[in-house]
Amino acid sequence: MSAALTDGLSLLLFRLHSGRLLGINLLKVNEIIPCPTLTKLPNRHPHVRGVATLRGAPLNVIDLARAVGEQGGNDSQEGCLIVTALSRSRQALHVKSVERIVQCATSDVRPPPKGTGARAFITGVTQIDGTIVQVLDIEKVLHEIAPVLPEELDEQQLTRSERNLIEGCRVLVVDDSHVALQQTLITLRKLGLECQAVRSAAAALQLLLDEEAAGTPIEVLVSDIEMPEMDGYSLVSEIRQRPSIAHTYVLLHTSLDSTMNTARAHSVGANDVLTKFSAVDLSQALVRACKRVAETAANA
After folding, report:
1. What CA–CA distance (Å, rounded) separates 66 from 146?
2. Helix (H) or strand (E) holding 100
3. Least C-beta-crowded within 10 Å: which of 57, 190, 220, 268?
4. pLDDT in tens, 152-202
5. Is residue 291 very low, low, confident or very high in pLDDT (cuts 50, 70, 90)?
6. What is the pLDDT of residues 198-220, one digit of tens each?
7. What are the residues facing 32 on neighbouring strands?
8. How far apart are CA 161 and CA 102, in angstroms?
9. pTM score over 0.85
């Protein structure tokens, strides 16, 4: 697959009550609906407006403006809901209005400016028709409301031989989300892995090359897909085009539904794809990765 095809990003543009323009990856959006009557629950989080019923299923409705530190709308049924699906869950974001869907290149999405601060709730910025658009960090929004604690790994979930296998594997993790990066690192370290971590695809590519040149090659890369400047698909393509590191086993670890990304991931050369976040599934994926690495080394 060409770089041009792997570098595309569809953004749904919407506005908060302040007029702030934001974008969200269209792959994270299920549907857009008018705000229905909400059921107010006692002791709910202050950023949760209530619960909507969508085709018989309950759905938490997050007041996105309040969640990112702005003044939200009133309690009427104004605005609309963006129903999202990511990291194995569904929720609705209450916003003032939805504008349109636009196409842009991942390479045109820049990291947040330095000094933006941890409360910015954005993963990047880009320009659409001369207007600055901030890309929402929905994972951070959800974590602030309901933190996802890593699952406890049962000692019996992996055999002794599997543990011995993965403990000898050198792993690099890349994710632009601090929350997701820490979740992954906690799990890998509980498995006894010595792993390195970076926050961008460019940094990951450079570290792979540096470690290979130093004679300490990284065997497994666990990479996010949605990252500014260079996404996970483009990173895999770059790796496969460089003979010195082309052998690296790549697991794409994404908050997007993995069933939607498997074909594309394999087409650019990824070995596996997994939806965040399950410590058990991640540990099994690492076992598969390290088995492949060991088999490749034995046949070399």
Report:
1. 15
2. strand 97-105
3. 57
4. 555 557 888 888 888 878 999 999 888 888 889 988 988 888 899 999 999
5. very high
6. 999 999 999 999 999 999 999 99
7. 82
8. 49
9. no
Instruction: Quickly state the pLDDT bin for 1 (edges 50, 70, 90).
Output: very low
Same domain, 141 and 265: no
Instruction: Say if residue 106's pLDDT is above 50.
Output: yes
**Helix, strand and coil in the chain, % to nearest 5:** 35, 30, 35
Looking at the domain assignment, is residue 38 inside a domain?
yes
Q: Could you tell me where the beta strands, DSSP code E, fall in 106-229? A: 122-128, 131-136, 171-174, 195-198, 220-223
Q: Same structural domain for residues 65 and 196?
A: no
Q: Looking at residues 98-125, what average pLDDT do you find?
A: 84
Number of domains in the chain: 2
CATH of the domain at 253: 3.40.50.2300
Label the pairing between strands 171-174 and 220-223. Answer: parallel
- Alpha carbon separation from 43 to 50, 61, 140 (Å, rounded): 11, 15, 22
Tokens encoding 247: 């052998």
Between β-strands 48-54 and 21-25, what pairing exists: parallel, antiparallel or unpaired? unpaired
97 and 181 in a single domain? The answer is no
Measured between alpha carbons, how far is 291 from 122 in angstroms, rounded to an integer? 37
